[in-house]
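Comment thread on ticket #2218

A.B. wrote:
> Attaching the input chain for the structure job we discussed in standup.
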Amino acid sequence: MLLNPPGPRGAPQGMPHWPYVKAVDDALTARGIPPGTVRASHHGLERGLTTYITLAWDVSRTSGRGGIRLDWEERQGWYYALTGLDAYDVLFYTVLTALRTPVADPERVADVAEELVRFRRVPDVEYQEEWDGARDVRAAADDFRRGRLGLGPRWLPQDGAGPEKTAGNGVQLTIDTQADTYERALAAVQAAYGRGFQA
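C.D. wrote:
> Ran it. Output below, let me know if you need it in another format.
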């Protein structure tokens, strides 16, 4: 069950990682293990507007005595949780070491998920395959964050001359999402780019 309703062109508005969400969901469905819940969104400014995915199988969809949850964050990669009969009862939560790259190939995600859902165990392998669309998803996520901060999209070098290549002087702003509060970050952005900026 996808929890984010589609927007224009089938993708939820503001979801730069939607192609990855869809590819993973399709791979799981093809294996006969579709998650009961698929949630895709992004964190707030206090956590850097990073994107995430949550996939959940309740006890009725697994072979064990509880549920399984997979969590993905664009910079950290994949984690998993073993849950009890109540999905909020997390018994165990840790990094998914079998997937060695943050934007792992959806088929490899399905390999690992299948072991978890059917046997409640992580396969003893290490997959290092990155998804073919990983670069595009990262670029879209960067552009999403830039857009939320009132900046234009980042131009890739092979795209030809863009603002990054032709601008002589510009403003560069670094926000420490661990130390800066939302109010301090917003004030810094407004000071750098004008008071008209709204988050």
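A.B. wrote:
> Thanks. Noting for the ticket: The beta strands are 37-42, 51-57, 67-73, 77-83, 90-95.
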